[in-house]
Amino acid sequence: MGYLFDMLFDKYYAKGTMTGKENIATTELAATEARVLLALEEEGGKWNQRTLSAKTGINEDAVMQTAFMLAKQGLCEIEEEKKVYYRLTEEGRAYAEDGLPERRALYFLIDRNGATVEELRDAFGDEVKIAINWLLKKNWARIEKRGEERYLIPTIVLEESLSGIDEEILNFVSGGATERGTLADRIKNSGILLTEEELNGFLSQLSSRNLVDSYSRVEREIAISEAGEEEILSRRGISVEDEIAQLTPELLRTGSWKGRKFKRYDVNLASKEVFPAKIHPYQRLLDRMRRIFTEMGFVEIKGEAVQSAFWNFDALFVPQDHPAREMQDTFYLAARKRIEASDDLIEKVKQMHEHGGSLNSTGWGGEWKRELGEELLLRTHTTAVTLSYLASHPEPPVKVFCIDRVYRRETIDPTHIPEFDQLEGIVMDKGVTFSNLLGCLATFYNKMGFPSIRFRPGYFPYTEPSVEVEVYMAERGWIELGGAGIFREEVTNPVGVDYPVLAWGLGIGRLAMISLGLTDIRDLYQPDIDWLRNARSFR
Ligand code: FA5
Predict the structure, then answer these.
(1) Residue 245 neighbours by CB under 8 Å, 6+ apart
(2) Of the candidates 296, 279, 299, 278, the residue with the CA atom closest to the CA atom of residue 287
């Protein structure tokens, strides 16, 4: 029976011996109960779930359930004990085989009668820090400065260091999960005398080094109670009659259920938790966003992850010397490609950048270079996708959205990762306004369960006016979730669009993080089974 079952069970029943005498059986015993009770009586003594299952032929979960039922009626007693098990981590296994880094480093130092930190680094690579740290902590070496060089000098001879207790414990645990009592016996039998506290100290040191981890399990022993014995005596040979556990169409059709006994169920009894397959919480969130926008009348579009700088930046009127275009912000591919746009459109974008085209705009000035537009990159935002869609659908109305991955060279922190998803959307129609844009975003966030959002003035080279959308998070305050605005004419004019375009690009990861109660965006991608099992689900 799994650990989770134990936890669940512990929720319902107090620890210790359980007889539930107040509930002495008043009803007939079910067939499985009778079988288990007879088995307990036949040989007496204490049984664990596994042995009782083997004896009765009832599977382990069912046998335990039955024992709980019997205990509730006072017919058997269940003793519980929480046992702690230790096992090696992957790193622990490697060190148990090869020796701890400080042990290997000590041999190295003794062989050479001391070595420089550099020599140790050459020999131990990534492990050098651990090795030096523990050599010093264990007083196996000291540091000596000679000129510019730092030397590590062994301070003990080999024989004195042979029996590191932590190393012995690693060995004792290396055979597989080891119960604490068994571990303590092994240590004692090897002649090492340790108090409980000392053993705890070594174990917590090994676990803080991530070499050993532990888990606990409640183990149970089941024995027949006096009341159980009496029950058997009074009924002189309980007969084990076949029961119907499940009503089938066959039983109903033939009427053969008549006169038969039905298995009783106690719906209050703890049962094993079941974890059926389910959709990842993050995926469920994406699906929910899709549904909300679809319900609002939007159509989903898709685009390529590799875009030309032309569609990712130039057509969006991002100047060619904008910092976001630098290598340190954007992932560029080594290749270039002819821009996928008509010569007429490319020419219009060029004119727009250089002097504002035919609009009352100055553009950015300088020369617009086609070869920079031909560079290929991993799209830095999904705005590249909605804009190129707009270019091929310039007639109103257009109401589309796109949910996809974008890539940026970012320093990773709790709210920044180099690959994240954006939810992009545009509305293009006669007479749509800035208020419509704010209304659209407020509706979306409200439907996502965020009543408190605010808009702050923002800046994007391609929108005017521009806003940043923020939602409130209890511990972190206001957190920026996206940008939005109305496309500038410098963007819409070259692609042949004559009406206002409301546009937004929202970061999904941050929103997901808040919705799922995480404080670090990286946790969205961690395969943490407990979190996955317990994460709130979205309808
Ligand atoms: C943009 O990407 C604009 N294209 C949005 C836009 C579209 C504005 C259309 C106007 C019109 P920004 O760089 O601010 O904007 O990114 C949008 C959101 O993506 C941010 O608010 C944030 O929630 C999220 N985001 C940005 N960088 C990261 C990152 N490194 N990790 C996780 N989320 C990020």
Answers:
(1) 263
(2) 279
Question: Which CATH number belongs to the domain containing residue 160 in this structure?
Answer: 1.10.10.10
Total tally of structural domains belonging to the chain = 3
- Supply the pTM of this predicted model: 0.62
**Co-location of 31 and 97 in the same domain:** no
Note down the domain range covering 99: 88-191
Query: Residue 444's closest CA among 294, 300, 283, 302?
Result: 294
Cα dist from 150 to 123, 134, 267, whole Å: 16, 17, 70
Q: Which of 78, 79, 80, 73 is nearest to 228 (CA)?
A: 73
H-type alpha helices, 190-305? 196-208, 226-235, 249-254, 281-295
Question: In angstroms, what is the span from residue 380 Cα to ligand 1's centroid?
Answer: 9
306 and 342 fall within a common domain = yes
End-to-end CA distance of the chain, in Å? Answer: 31
From the CB of 74, is ligand 1 less than 6 Å away?
no
Residues 491, 475 within the same domain? yes
Q: Is 460 in the pocket of ligand 1 (CB under 6 A)?
A: yes
- Planar angle of CA 535, 537, 539, nearest 5 degrees: 170
Tokens of 218: 């409640």
Residue 303 Cβ < 6 Å to ligand 1: no
- 370's CB contacts (< 8 A; 6+ apart) are 339, 346, 350
The reply to whether 385 and 470 lie within a common domain is yes
Q: Which residues does residue 504 pair with via DSSP β-bridges, in sequence order?
A: 425, 484
For the record, the structure tokens of 398 come out as 């257009």
Query: Contact 243/261 with Cβ under 8 angstroms?
Result: yes
Q: Residue 214: beta bridge partners?
A: 86
The per-residue pLDDT for range 385-416, each reduced to its tens digit, is 999 999 999 999 999 999 999 999 998 888 89
Beta carbon of 425 within 6 Å of any ligand 1 atom = no
Cβ(420) – ligand 1 distance below 6 Å: yes
d(CA 338, CA 342): 11
| CA of residue 470 relative to chain centroid, distance | 25
Most confident of 163-177, 231-245, 428-442: 428-442
Strand order in the sheet with 141-146: 115-116, 149-154, 141-146
Judge if the beta carbon of residue 422 lies within 6 A of ligand 1. Answer: yes
- Atom number in ligand 1 closest to CA 424: 7
- Each residue's pLDDT tens digit, 195-254: 999 999 999 999 999 999 898 888 899 999 998 888 877 765 555 566 787 788 999 999
Q: Is the CA virtual torsion 303, 307, 311, 312 positive or negative?
A: positive
Cα of 155 from ligand 1 centre, angstroms = 57
